[in-house]
Amino acid sequence: MSTPQRLEEIIAEFSEAPREFKLPMLLEYSKKVPPLPERYAKNPNLLEQVHECQTPFFLAEEIDEAGRVQIHFDAPREAPTTRSFAGVVYEGLNGLTAEEILAVPNDFYTRMGLSEVVSPLRQRGIAGILWRLKKRVRADLEARQAS
């Protein structure tokens, strides 16, 4: 398992921050989730629901010819913690290769020290986001190899 540089920087940012700053820092990441592209907004069946999240949360991915993954999330603005997790994943992983994403440790978020400010149930959401993203990326790669 390997943590990409940008995600490692995010982890360090959080792990070094005092407890009282972690939640406000996390919530800032909710602003980093770009709007859902129109093709997904018009065809929600292209998105996969992340059932591990407490709120309705959906994701999609696209792998370009160079093998780089573009990540798309749909999370309600009324769910800032879930959107924040999406923002962390987006900032840390979007644009990386499929192989780099598949190599990310499944529990990377534990190194951020979020257990100080976010319940285990909420942390399960970020684990679910990464797990489903990896599942979809793996399926995309297998489909490419089969064709």
From TrEMBL:
Domain Fe-S metabolism associated span(s) in chain numbering: 13-135
Lineage: superkingdom: Bacteria
Chain segments annotated as coiled-coil in the UniProt record: none
Pfam families attached to this UniProt entry: SufE
SUPFAM superfamilies: SufE/NifU
Family according to the record: Belongs to the SufE family.
Protein name: SufE family protein
